[in-house]
Specification:
Layout lengths: L6 E6 L8 H12 L3 E6 L7 H6 L2 E5 L6 H14 L4 E5 L1 H5 L1 H8 L7 H6 L34 E4 L2 E3 L8 H6 L3 E3 L2 H13 L4 E4 L10 H12 L4 E6 L1 H6 L1 H8 L3 E9 L3 H7 L7 H12 L3 E5 L8 H13 L17 E2 L14 E5 L2 E5 L3 H14 L11
Parallel strand pairs: 1-2, 1-3, 3-4, 5-8, 8-9, 9-10, 10-11
Antiparallel strand pairs: 6-7, 12-14, 13-14
Bound molecules: iron/sulfur cluster (SF4).
Iron/sulfur cluster (SF4) binds next to helix 7.
Length: 395
């Protein structure tokens, strides 16, 4: 007699206004293990309560720190509607907050999520093609801000992890500087699917697009040969942008619209603490590169850190204005603040010595030794009234 397949309901939460790849990858893995899968992206779809009652197995994604609260609310809803369901949380920020989530919410965070439901061991394959057929189409995801909101955007990853060890970064906390490169043919398969389904712009969401000098330029060449009409954007560190400037300039001849790069803050103490691999004076070269080549750069900042006082913040901002970068920086970047997760690599280092920390459920709040700085932060946040701010889609 044929066995009844395991059915799993995958609920996705906020994934930075993009198609939820965390859920789509699990869905593919589950299908490869013989499961029947239904994916609901609760960020853009309402959740049918009947559906929750009908599934014995339910997985809830936690791809970002901003999705933890929603995931916990969904967990409550699921438990109330279907107390017998086997439930797991999954995704980068479920793993990063495993201890807190497991102890405070008594929920499983399995390392092998598909295996948790099927009872079969699953091997993690970084070349897996996300199951986008189970998601709503690209048109349902409208990227905020003015950079690409005129285009139908598909988000695609060419790697997993990142070679760098920026101390504040959750990618480093998880990947520990390791990178897994996707095969060219797998990335091209995803691009082909995106184009067939209406995508006009590819947002490469690798937290670092230039982990090495050859992998992604080969992808851009292949993409341009097959789909010269596509535009795209990438993310890279300032030092990579300067080191591989010729490759990045060439991207703009092949459809690149903009490059997102984390300046963080023009102060060497900040750059050293965060291990950003460049010095403040290098920003002059970045400004010159932008001016002379016309490449479009979307800088992101962490304006408020424990290492700069009010005078240094204002001086840093003045410096950015003098070298001509202010006009390309989104004003929301003047309100950004260092985030400390529970396993931040900054904790326990001399950089946080003497800094007052208060533990929260999933991280730490910090106070600046100079109250004026926190006051300036509050004033700016209240004047700004919120806004979308992304350096990558991992935190
Ligand atoms: S901040 Fe970016 S470049 Fe640095 S470790 Fe994280 S992902 Fe890599």
């Amino acid at each position: 007699m044929k066995e009844t397949p395991v059915s799993v309901l995958v609920l996705s939460t906020y994934e930075a206004y993009l198609q939820p790849l965390t859920a789509a990858k699990l869905s593919r893995q589950l299908k490869q293990s013989g499961c029947e899968v239904r994916v609901v992206d609760c960020f853009v779809q309402s959740l049918d309560t009947k559906l929750v009652k009908n599934f014995d197995n339910i997985a809830i994604s936690v791809p970002l720190s901003d999705s933890i609260t929603t995931a916990i609310k969904l967990l409550d809803v699921v438990r109330e509607l279907n107390p017998k369901a086997k439930v797991a949380l999954f995704g980068a920020h479920a793993i990063l907050n495993k201890v807190e989530l497991e102890t405070q919410y008594s929920v499983a965070i399995p390392s092998d999520v598909a295996g948790f439901f099927t009872g079969l061991k699953t091997v993690n394959d970084h070349n897996i093609i996300p199951d986008r057929e189970s998601l709503l189409g690209f048109k349902h995801y409208v990227y905020p801000g003015g950079l690409i909101n005129d285009k139908v955007v598909a988000n695609i990853e060419t790697t997993e992890g990142c070679r760098f060890k920026c101390t504040h970064c959750s990618v480093f906390s998880l990947a520990k500087g390791k990178v897994l490169y996707k095969k060219l043919e797998c990335v091209m398969e995803e691009i082909a699917f995106a184009v067939e389904n209406g995508a006009e712009h590819i947002s490469f969401t690798d937290p670092e697009f230039m982990n090495n000098a050859t992998h992604t330029p080969a992808i851009i060449d292949a993409m341009y040969r097959s789909y010269p009409q596509l535009t795209f954007d990438v993310i890279t560190r300032v030092d990579r942008l300067l080191r591989y400037k010729d490759a990045f300039i060439a991207f703009f001849d092949k459809g690149c619209r903009f490059i997102t790069t984390a300046i963080e803050f023009p102060d060497d103490k900040v750059l050293k603490a965060l291990q950003k691999g460049y010095r403040t004076k290098d920003l002059g070269a970045l400004a010159e590169l932008i001016k002379t080549t016309g490449i479009v750069v979307n800088p992101t900042l962490i304006t408020f850190t424990p290492w700069v006082d009010k005078a240094t913040i204002l001086a840093g901002e003045q410096y950015l204005a003098e070298i001509g970068l202010t006009e390309i920086i989104d004003p929301v970047q003047s309100t950004t603040r260092l985030m400390l997760t529970k396993d931040s690599n900054l904790l326990g280092t001399p950089h946080l010595e003497g800094i007052e920390l208060s533990e929260t459920e999933f991280g730490y709040d910090w106070c600046h030794p100079d109250q004026e700085v926190d006051e300036l932060y509050r004033q700016r946040v209240s004047a700004m009234g919120g806004g979308f701010n992304r350096c990558c889609v991992r935190c």
